[in-house]
């Protein structure tokens, strides 16, 4: 897995690799508003996970997931503030997102 210096560098490179959709976290699923699709934890795989911390603000951490779904024939990115989803996501979704850290 490649190492990236910045979040934008990672997003640009992964987009070139086919991760062209974007997901957001919902309570019990991840959602792609671009194609009105919601995936449950069993519906997707996490291909890569990258963490980023801003040097000027050590409390500002982001995590980038490269996600694929073979049944939906798509690759997508999910960017989130590190650990924020723990308060709003279901236990199953938190477990899925935590497995590859």
Chain-wise SSE layout:
Blueprint: H1 7-16, E1 21-25, E2 30-32, E3 37-39, E4 45-54, E5 57-69, E6 74-81, H2 91-98
Parallel strand pairs: 1-6
Antiparallel strand pairs: 1-2, 2-3, 4-5, 5-6
Could you characterize what this model shows?
By secondary structure, this protein is an alpha+beta fold. The chain has one domain (7-98). It has two helices and six strands, in the order αββββββα. It has helices at residues 7-16, 91-98; strands at residues 21-25, 30-32, 37-39, 45-54, 57-69, 74-81. A six-stranded mixed sheet has the order 3-2-1-6-5-4, with helices on both faces. A hairpin with a 4-residue loop joins strand 5 (57-69) and strand 6. The longest helix is centred in the N-terminal third of the chain and has 10 residues, at 7-16. The chain is globular. The two termini are 13 Å apart. The model has no long low-confidence stretch (mean pLDDT 86).
List keywords for this structure.
alpha+beta; six-stranded mixed β-sheet; 18% helix; 101 residues
- Please outline the major beta sheet: 6 strands, mixed
> How are the strands ordered across the major sheet?
3-2-1-6-5-4
Would you tell me the structural class of the helices and strands?
Answer: alpha+beta
Stretches with pLDDT under 50, minimum 5 residues: none
Order of helices and strands: HEEEEEEH
Mean pLDDT: 86
- Domain count: the total is 1
So how many helices?
2
Which range does the strand content fall in? 35-45%
How many strands appear in the DSSP assignment?
A: 6
